[in-house]
Amino acid sequence: MPSEKKRPVKIAVTGPPAAGKSTVLALLQDFGVPTFSADAVVKALSRPCREGYHLFCQRFGEGFLTASGELDRRLILEAMLADPQFKKTLEEIFHPLVKKELFRWFEKEKGEEVLAAEIPLLYQAGWADFFDQVIWVDCPEELLLARLKKRLGRKDLARKLLDQYQAGLPPKRKAFELAGYLPRETLAEKITAILNQLKRQK
Fold first, then answer.
1. This prediction's pTM
2. Do 161 and 148 contact (CB within 8 A), yes or no?
3. CA distances from 54 to 50, 80, 148, 195 (A)
4. Cα separation of 161 and 79, whole Å?
5. What structural domains and CATH numbers belong to the chain?
């Protein structure tokens, strides 16, 4: 009888905002690993006429829309950082939608050897059990804050966003750890070593 084909090793890429997760995901993709980005899915679902957009507007009205009718991501971020209930409701809208897309992607790519998904709120959402391995990407706090301040334009928002992220983390995480400030070539070498280790374990 032919041997049963093994299912792919599913890797979650996670870590605090501005740590370098997207760079790690891009490197994995360069190595031929199919990739999934929760942030990219949320952005797609947030566009006008998409399900996330309609659900958001049904719940919060039109007060968070730009003049062109799109969701104002900056306004939503500020509300999320100021109001825990707003954040909770936002996650109740988008997490089920992203989860559905994630499992659809798992099924689509089930013939692959390794899969990698960038899931920023992996632990906070309780999704760690969906994966076989985790790559935790991190940087020193001062670098995270500097990157976030550059991205957001305000030091107070950077601090609040990082504090909010860290508040939902479990005390211990079993994961491969990568420093997101390393040169791209060094990260590539470390990712190669992780992939080789995972393939040997299959």
1. 0.93
2. yes
3. 6, 18, 29, 40
4. 11
5. 7-34+114-202 (3.40.50.300), 40-108 (no CATH)
